[in-house]
Design brief:
By secondary structure, the protein is an alpha/beta fold. A six-stranded antiparallel beta sheet has the order 2-1-4-5-6-7, with helices on one face. The relative contact order is 0.18. The chain contains ten helices and 15 strands.
């Protein structure tokens, strides 16, 4: 799988730009705030239908413009395709010229693995970062996963709203049984997907991390959830009903799931050094890449945003040397050339991309 061409109109700081990509390594270099990450964001938008950094879609529209557009031509082992996304008051997605009705119809057409400086927070930050990592990976491979999550969130919001009505308006709390049943149904589906992929990550990451650290470190992952079965979660909801009413929100569920990484039996977010965090996140991303490749039968596209900022030169080259037959899009502040691989190098300055 690889992206052949990207067209951008009124997207972020780009007025109009067409970028042809190399099948192997594509390097975009330039000073900060020139538009490098916007290229990564456009590809991510074409893959996932949303931004990895904008809270609202309108943030992606060029200042004083009413609409932004991105168009991506790509090639897979069995077909070519074209994705077009228009962002204005609403977002419209086209696949091969046909307007899509649901976001899930877009997922899985362009498979990506993304690495940003903020990804270090997958390990250092709160559980929401780790859930988001899982959500991005699994939803590309299993569109039904995102459908189940969205249904869970919808019912969660309704339950939370009714919890507040019970507290403030003395509504009948027995009616919570309806939402509890639905929440438990969707939570179990999400748990099963997450548990399956945590097991796959665990299998891949042990070998990868051992190779990266010359077998000096052993890495393990533990998935933490209280929604393993429908019956178990229904029991928890029942036990915590009074507390949930008091607080006005649902205190337990898959929206609180987490996973913990251990290095040599020690929890990395508590005891890990900066170097261990960096190496562990590389191992995690390589494991993700390998899983996606096995699932879809070809390599996903690897997006490396501001790749030099969190890693030393040795780790960068070790990482890139482990990647074969994969299209890579890299943004860096200084010109970079990867030895023994085909490179296409672009300079980015004030929203203009020029091949060098």
């Amino acid at each position: 799988m690889w992206i052949k061409k990207i067209k951008i109109n009124n997207f972020r700081n780009y007025k109009q730009q067409e970028i042809v990509l190399e099948e192997n390594i594509n390097i975009f270099y330039g000073e900060n705030a020139q538009g490098k990450t916007n290229i990564i964001e456009a590809i991510f938008l074409g893959s996932m239908g949303k931004s990895f950094r904008a809270k609202k879609d309108k943030e992606m529209i060029r200042l004083e413009m009413e609409k932004a557009e991105i168009e991506i031509e790509y090639q897979k082992s069995d077909r070519d395709g074209k994705i077009k996304i228009e962002v204005s008051n609403k977002k419209t997605i086209f696949l091969n010229g046909i307007k899509l009705k649901k976001l899930s119809e877009l997922l899985g057409n362009i498979n990506i693995v993304i690495f940003t400086p903020e990804d270090i927070n997958i390990l250092k930050g709160g559980p929401q970062n780790r859930r988001r990592f899982l959500d991005i990976m699994i939803s590309q491979l299993k569109p039904n996963y995102m459908y189940a999550i969205n249904l869970f969130i919808k019912n969660l919001e309704q339950r939370n709203n009714y919890l507040r009505q019970i507290r403030e308006e003395k509504k009948d709390e027995n009616l919570l049984d309806v939402w509890d049943e639905k929440l438990a149904e969707y939570a179990t589906i999400v748990f099963q997907y997450r548990n399956e992929y945590i097991k796959k990550i665990s299998q891949k990451i042990k070998k990868i991390h051992g190779e990266i650290t010359d077998e000096k470190e052993e890495i393990e992952i533990e998935y933490q959830s209280e929604c393993k079965t429908k019956e178990e979660y229904l029991k928890i909801l029942k036990e915590r009903r009074k507390l949930d009413i008091l607080k006005g929100f649902t205190t337990k569920g898959i929206h609180r799931d987490d996973f913990v990484i251990y290095i040599n039996k020690k929890q990395i977010d508590i005891y890990g050094s900066q170097g261990q965090h960096r190496t562990a996140i590389l191992s995690l991303k390589l494991a993700e890449l390998n899983i996606v490749r096995e699932e879809i039968g070809e390599n996903p596209i690897l997006l490396l945003d501001d790749f030099m900022s969190e890693l030393d030169e040795k780790r960068i080259y070790n990482f890139l040397n482990k990647i074969e037959n994969t299209q890579v899009v890299i943004t860096v502040t200084k010109k970079l050339e990867v030895e023994n691989k085909k490179n296409l190098i672009y300079n980015v300055e004030e929203g203009n991309v020029k091949k060098t």
